[in-house]
Design a protein that fits this description.
With 929 residues, the protein is mainly alpha-helical. Helix content is 69%, strand content 4%. It is built from 46 helices and 8 strands.
C-alpha cells in the first residue's frame, strides 16, 4: 500500500460489504483536518472500482452553490464517465423525455425555472438506471461545518435519498443536514507505532533511524499524518537518502516549532523548487477558482510531462486534487501554502513568464471561470483588467457565486472612472451591485448603492427614476422601515407621466405597506387596483408578484370562495398570456372549484391541465396538478383512477421525487388503497412511508399521521390489538399537542373500535369529543363525523336519532362523490332497522352498483351484506344475493393480498356474519345486528 495500514480502512470495507444491495446507505467519516479522511476515501474508491462499482467522486470545496449547476455538471459528468450506459439510459426513456435530456445536455446558459426540476429528475433517473446494473457509490469529501456545506449536503441527499446508492462523505465535524448518517466512523490520530511505519516508508530509511526520528517528532505532530509528512518534507528535502541523516540534524528538528499555519515550514519547501515551478504554483494560488489538472499541466509547456510533475507536487503535499465527477481540480488544502505563494506571485514572478501563463490559461477548455483581472491590473493594463473583471462577474453570477461576483463588481466600481463608459454604464453597474448586496442579505449596503444610483439617474428619465424609487421602497419595506418607505412611495405617487407598469408597481408596493401596517383590507384594495392597472397581455413579473400576494392573502385571511373567484376573474380579464402563470391561475381555479364541491368542473379543468403537449415543459406545476387531480378523483369516489394516477406519480411519469414529495404521495396512495380494499398493499406503503419519515427525521405530527393510517388498516381487518395500540397512541398525542385534524380522525376510528366491541359509552364520549372540534359544515371532516354518528345510532338501534342526521347528510352531500354512496347505504340500513325491508332494496342496490363502479371492494362487500338482510321476492333471489355477497367477499380477500391480513379478516366476525347470512338465504330474513 502507498501509505500506512489503517484499521479504519478494513472497518469501512466491512460496513460497506454488509450493506444490502438495493438500499440507500450513508457512511460518514469524521476527524480533524489532516487526519487522513481524503486518503481513506481515495483508497476506498480504488477498491470499489476494482469490484466494478460505479464510483462518482465529488469535493464540496469545488461544488457550485446553486443546485441547478450542480445537476448540470453531474449530468454531463455521467455521460463522460459512462457513455455506453448513459446512451442505453437515453434510449430507454420515452421520446419526450429523451428529447428533453438532449436539450439539457446541450444547454450552456442558466437553466430556467421550468428546467431546474427536470434536471434533478434526470440525474436521479440516470443514477437509478446505473444502480440497476452496478453498485453505485457517491463520494463527497470536505463537508466542513458551515452554511455552504449544509446546503450542498442537503441537495446531495435530496438526489440520492430514495435511490439504491451508497453515500460516502467526510468532514472535520458532522455537517447538520436533513438526514443523519446510517453510521459515523471517527478517524483517530496515529499512534507511535503507526508514526514509525509512516516515517520509515516516507524516508525509506532503516528501522533504527525511523525509531529515532519518531521519538523526536511524534509529540509535535500530535499523530496528525498531514503535519507529520509536512515536517519530514520540510526538514529533509535537502537529503538524497536517509543514510545522510545525522543525530545533530535530529536535534535541530527538536527545536523546530511546527504547526499547520507556520510560514517557516512552507518556505523551506518553496525555496527547494525551481523558478518556473514556483511561478506556476504561485499563479495557481492566485487564482481563486480551482483549475483542472489538464489546464495546469499545459502551463508547464514541456510536452506532456507537466501532469507528471504536478502529480509529484500532489504527492509531496504541495497541491491536492479535488474530484468533481470526471474532472480533477487542483486546490491548496493548506492555507499557509496559498498565502506564501500569493506573496511570491506578487513579488517574484517575471512579467514575461506571467504573460505566457495568462495566455496559456486563456486557451483552456474547462467550463469554470478564472480570476485573472488582477493579473492584468498588475501589468498596468487597467482597461483589460476591468473588462475581464466584468466578464468574471458575469460568470460568477451565472453559477451562483455571489461573494465572488460582489468582489469583481467592487473592483470594477473602483476603477470604472479609468476606462471608457462604453464598457458598462455607471447606472447599470450600481443596479447590479445593489442586486448582489440584496441577494446576500446585505440590505443596508444595497440601500447605500441605490442611493448613489438615485443621484445618477436623471429625473427626466421617468421610467428609470421610478424603478430606482420603487426598489428603494421595496427594500425599506423588507427592512421594516415603513416611514421611509412611505416617503419614497409618496414621491412616486406625485410623479407625472409614469408608465402603466410603474403605476401597477406603485399600487402593489402601497398594498405591501398597508399589509405591513396591519390593514389587509386596504392592502387587498391596492393589490386589486394593481391588477386593473396592469396592461392587458402583460408578461411582466409583476403579474406573478400580484398572484402570489393574492394567494397568500386568501390563505391567511380565509377569504370566501366567491371573493377568490372574483380575483381570478380580474386576472383573466387582463389576458395574461404567459404559459406558466396561466397554468397557475387554472390550478388555483381548480382548487376553488374543488373546495366548492363542484367536482365535475374541477376534474374537467385538471384533466385538461395534465394533458400538456410537452410533458416536461413545466414538471413542478404538472406534478402539483396531478396531485390535485388525484385528490379530486378520490373525493369524488373514483378510487381506481386515483390509484392509477398516484402509482404513475410514484413510479412512472415522475419516478424520482424528493423524499418529502415521495412521502406525501405514498400516504395519499395508502388512503386510496384503503378505500379500494387493497389493504395489504396499503399497509406496505404505510410501513415504507414510516421508514422514510424516520430517515428524514420528519416532524412527530407526520409520524403520528402515518401511525393513524396503520391503525385504521388493522381496524379494517379486525386486528383489534394492533389497531387499539396505534389509535390510542395517536389520540393521546393529538389531544396533548392540539392537532385538531389528527384528533378528529383518531377519535372517530377509536369510536368505531369501541362500537365493534359493544362499548357504547366509550364510543359516545369519543364522538362528543369530536363533535366539539371546529369544522366547516359540508366539509370532508364534517361528513366523516356525521357518518360515524349515524353508525353509532344504527348500532344502538336508535331510529329516532337517525332522521335529523340523515336529513343533514343528503342536504349537504353532492351526488357525484363517495358520500353519496355512503348516504344510500345508510338510508337502506335505516329502513332495515325500522322494519321496512322492501324500501331498503332500492337504495342498497343503487349503492352497491355505484360502489362496484368506483372500484371500492370493501364498500361493495359491506353494502352487499346489508342487501342480503333485505326480504327477497323468492328463494332464487335470496340465493342470487348470497352468491353476489360471496363473490364480493372473495374479491375483497384477493384485493387484501397479504396472507396474514386475509386470515385475520376472514376468521374474525366476517366468518360468523357470512354463516348467518347463508342461513338467512334459506330460512328467511333475520333482524339486524
Amino acid at each position: 500500500m502507498s501509505w500506512i495500514e489503517r484499521l479504519e480502512f478494513q472497518e469501512a470495507l466491512d460496513i460497506l460489504n454488509a450493506v444490502h444491495e438495493g438500499d440507500f446507505y450513508w457512511l460518514h467519516l469524521e476527524g480533524a483536518a489532516g487526519i487522513g479522511k481524503s486518503h481513506l476515501l481515495r483508497r476506498l474508491a480504488r477498491h470499489l472500482r476494482e469490484q466494478e462499482a460505479r464510483v462518482l467522486a465529488l469535493d464540496a470545496v469545488v461544488l457550485p452553490p446553486a443546485p441547478e449547476h450542480f445537476y448540470q455538471i453531474a449530468l454531463k459528468g455521467l455521460f463522460r464517465l459512462y457513455p455506453g450506459e448513459m446512451r442505453r439510459f437515453e434510449k430507454a426513456l420515452a421520446p419526450a423525455a429523451a428529447a428533453a435530456l438532449r436539450s439539457l445536455r446541450r444547454r450552456k446558459a442558466n437553466p430556467g425555472d421550468e428546467e431546474k426540476f427536470l434536471l434533478e429528475q434526470m440525474v436521479s433517473a440516470a443514477l437509478h438506471f446505473l444502480a440497476g446494473q452496478h453498485r453505485v457509490v457517491l463520494i463527497v469529501d470536505h463537508l466542513e461545518a458551515g452554511l455552504d456545506s449544509t446546503r450542498i449536503l442537503n441537495q446531495v441527499l435530496s438526489l440520492v435519498q430514495t435511490l439504491p446508492v451508497v453515500l460516502l462523505s467526510a468532514g472535520e465535524s458532522r455537517t447538520m443536514g436533513a438526514v443523519a448518517p446510517n453510521q459515523t466512523l471517527v478517524l483517530n490520530p496515529l499512534n507511535q507505532r503507526q508514526t514509525e511505519q509512516l516515517v520509515q516508508q516516507r524516508l525509506n530509511c532503516g528501522e533504527m533511524a525511523a525509531r529515532l526520528l519518531t521519538n523526536k517528532i511524534f509529540l509535535k505532530s500530535r499523530g496528525n499524518p498531514r503535519l507529520l509528512l509536512a515536517m519530514l518534507s520540510a526538514f529533509f528535502s535537502s537529503f538524497q537518502n536517509a543514510q545522510e541523516i545525522e543525530p545533530d540534524h535530529v536535534a535541530q528538528l527538536q527545536e523546530t516549532q511546527v504547526h499547520t499555519a507556520e510560514p517557516r515550514l512552507v518556505q523551506q519547501l518553496f525555496h527547494s523548487m525551481g523558478k518556473e515551478a514556483r511561478a506556476v504554483l504561485s499563479l495557481l494560488a492566485a487564482l481563486e477558482q480551482p483549475v483542472s489538472l489538464r489546464a495546469a499541466a499545459r502551463l508547464l509547456g514541456d510536452k506532456g510531462r507537466g501532469a507528471t510533475r504536478l502529480r509529484r507536487w500532489v504527492d509531496a503535499g504541495r497541491l491536492d486534487v479535488a474530484p468533481l465527477f470526471d474532472l480533477e481540480l487542483l486546490t491548496f488544502r493548506w492555507p499557509a501554502w496559498r498565502t506564501l505563494l500569493r506573496q511570491a506571485f506578487q513579488q517574484d514572478t517575471p512579467r514575461e513568464l506571467l504573460l505566457r501563463l495568462m495566455e496559456a490559461l486563456q486557451t483552456k477548455s474547462d467550463n469554470l471561470p478564472l480570476q485573472m483581472s488582477h493579473l492584468y491590473f498588475r501589468d498596468g493594463r487597467v482597461e483589460e483588467a476591468v473588462r475581464l473583471a466584468l466578464s468574471e462577474a458575469g460568470q460568477f453570477w451565472k453559477y451562483g457565486h455571489l461573494r465572488k461576483t460582489l468582489n469583481r463588481l467592487q473592483f470594477v466600481s473602483r476603477h470604472h472612472h479609468r476606462v471608457g463608459k462604453d464598457l458598462i454604464a455607471r447606472s447599470d453597474l450600481l443596479s447590479w451591485l445593489a442586486d448582489c448586496y440584496q441577494r446576500l442579505g446585505l440590505n443596508a449596503n444595497a440601500l447605500d448603492v441605490l442611493q448613489q444610483l438615485r443621484e445618477e439617474v436623471p429625473a427626466s428619465d421617468v421610467s428609470a427614476w421610478a424603478g430606482v424609487h420603487a426598489r428603494m421602497a421595496q427594500l425599506l419595506l423588507a427592512m421594516d422601515q415603513l416611514a421611509e418607505a412611505r416617503f419614497f412611495l409618496q414621491e412616486l405617487k406625485g410623479k407625472k407621466g409614469l408608465p402603466a407598469v410603474q403605476r401597477a408597481w406603485l399600487e402593489l408596493l402601497q398594498g405591501d405597506l398597508e399589509y405591513n401596517l396591519g390593514h389587509p383590507s386596504y392592502a387587498l384594495r391596492r393589490w386589486l387596483a394593481a391588477v386593473e392597472t396592469l396592461p392587458a397581455g402583460s408578461r411582466h413579473r409583476l403579474a406573478r408578484e400580484l398572484f402570489s400576494r393574492l394567494q397568500k392573502l386568501a390563505a391567511e385571511q380565509e377569504s370566501p370562495l366567491g371573493e377568490q373567484m372574483d380575483w381570478l376573474a380580474l386576472f383573466a380579464r387582463r389576458r395574461l398570456n404567459r404559459g406558466s402563470l396561466k397554468f397557475q391561475l387554472a390550478l388555483w381555479e381548480a382548487r376553488l372549484l374543488f373546495a366548492s364541491k363542484n367536482y365535475r368542473k374541477a376534474l374537467s379543468l385538471l384533466e385538461g391541465l395534465v394533458r400538456q403537449p410537452d410533458l416536461y415543459r413545466c414538471p413542478a406545476e404538472l406534478l402539483a396538478a396531478r396531485l390535485l387531480l388525484a385528490e379530486v378523483l378520490a373525493t369524488a369516489g373514483r378510487w381506481e383512477k386515483a390509484a392509477r394516477l398516484l402509482a404513475e406519480l410514484d413510479n412512472g411519469v415522475f419516478p424520482f421525487l424528493s423524499p418529502a414529495q415521495r412521502l406525501n404521495i405514498q400516504l395519499k396512495r395508502a388512503i386510496v388503497l384503503k378505500e379500494l380494499g387493497r389493504l395489504g398493499e396499503a399497509l406496505k406503503l404505510i410501513q415504507k412511508a414510516d421508514t422514510l419519515a424516520e430517515a428524514l427525521d420528519a416532524p412527530r405530527a407526520l409520524r403520528m399521521e402515518i401511525a393513524l393510517h396503520e391503525g385504521h388498516v388493522h381496524l379494517l381487518v379486525h386486528n383489534y390489538l394492533s389497531a387499539g395500540d396505534r389509535l390510542k397512541q395517536v389520540h393521546h398525542y393529538a389531544r396533548s399537542s392540539g392537532q385538531a385534524d389528527l384528533l378528529l380522525s383518531a377519535s372517530l376510528w377509536l369510536a368505531w373500535y369501541a362500537i365493534l366491541q359493544n362499548r357504547f359509552d366509550q364510543a359516545e364520549k369519543l364522538l362528543n369529543e369530536a363533535l366539539g372540534l371546529e369544522m366547516t359544515e359540508g366539509s370532508v371532516e364534517w361528513f366523516n363525523l356525521l357518518f360515524y354518528r349515524i353508525q353509532f345510532q344504527l348500532a344502538r338501534h336508535n331510529g329516532d336519532g337517525l332522521a335529523p342526521l340523515l336529513e343533514a347528510w343528503f342536504r349537504e352531500g353532492p351526488a357525484e362523490n363517495k358520500f353519496h354512496i355512503l348516504g344510500l347505504w345508510m338510508r337502506g340500513q335505516r329502513a332495515l332497522l325500522e322494519g321496512r325491508g322492501e324500501e331498503a332494496v332500492e337504495p342498497l342496490s343503487r349503492a352497491h352498483q355505484l360502489a362496484v363502479q368506483s372500484g371500492s371492494r370493501y364498500l361493495a362487500y359491506q353494502v352487499a351484506k346489508s342487501l342480503c338482510r333485505c326480504p327477497a321476492d323468492n328463494e332464487e333471489d335470496a340465493r342470487r344475493r348470497l352468491e353476489q355477497l360471496k363473490a364480493d367477499f372473495q374479491a375483497l380477500l384477493d384485493a387484501i393480498e397479504d396472507p396474514v391480513l386475509q386470515r385475520q379478516f376472514a376468521e374474525s366476525r366476517e366468518k360468523q356474519e357470512m354463516a348467518a347470512l347463508s342461513l338467512q338465504a334459506v330460512a328467511g330474513p333475520a333482524p339486524m345486528d
